[in-house]
Amino acid sequence: MEKAKIRLGIIGLGAMGAEMLDVARRHPEFDVVLAADPGARAVERAAAAHPEVIYTAEPDELVDHDGLDALYVASPPATHAAYAVRAMKAGKAVFAEKPLAVDLAEGEEMVAVAAETGVATGLNFTMADRAAALAVGRALRDGEAGTVLGVEMRFTFPQWPREFQQDAHWVAGRAQGGFLREVGSHFLFLTDRLLGPLTPVHTRAGYGAAGEESAFGLFTAGDVPVTISGQVAAAPETYEWTLYGAERSYRITDFADLWLGDGSGWTRVEPDGPRGGEDTRLSEFAKAVRGEPSRLADFAAGLRVQRAVEHFHRRTP
């Protein structure tokens, strides 16, 4: 018997919401019923590409709509909790953009309500099903790295926000944006998933007129030291996550490229399986909605990452 499609609503039609709308419309397990954004231009662009979807300027209409099974929330982070909590209490599964929230109390409430209601939840962390990340996970389980000695994350940006985020003004601001929340969280999640929860030792963030400009943090995952650094500077755009092992080391660059280190240099390797993207993470969300095991980060994992990220901001004047 053919499975019924999951009736999906999308809140937020910026860069990520519009992309997910495109992907979900093609996905065999989803039927996009409604989409919302308070910005008229965002709605006009989405409606031009997908005129068959019903649009509204009022996201609350989706939260309360009886004809939806799930919501994808791609609105600014400060709004995530209000939409997600009401949706979960109404019995809807929720798939949200990261970060989970920017207020820790709101993140904690989201996790508590998810546990109380038992609905499926997911955070759209890229590294949840990226082939390179899965390959490192298999290598660790097989003992190929030997003793894990450390993890290092490095990011540089010649401009922030990046070009595709220029319309999302909140991405630059200290209150909701910055590269730690937008980029660093993906790799902090990967570290948490592979090595366990992160404990902060020292964090520092620097700010300029346009918001977050630099950051450095030292954490531990068990006995493993974990460092993360980033800056907006006159340098090429760089995304780099490295796990150092006594026998082998692993590096992921540009979110997808996998490199193997054996003491003599780095060799590019091609991981097995599909690359991983919005389509595969939607498939993982469908599994979660149907009560099957899923690779997605749930809200509890998202809260652990949120705590690590917000530690940079809480004591910085």
From TrEMBL:
InterPro entries: Gfo/Idh/MocA-like_OxRdtase_N, Gfo/Idh/MocA_oxidrdct_glycsds, GFO_IDH_MocA-like_dom, NAD(P)-bd_dom_sf. This is Gfo/Idh/MocA family protein. Residues 136-250 form the GFO/IDH/MocA-like oxidoreductase domain. PANTHER family: BCDNA.GH03377. Keywords: Oxidoreductase. It comes from the Bacteria. Residues 6-123 form the Gfo/Idh/MocA-like oxidoreductase N-terminal domain. It comes from Sphaerisporangium dianthi.
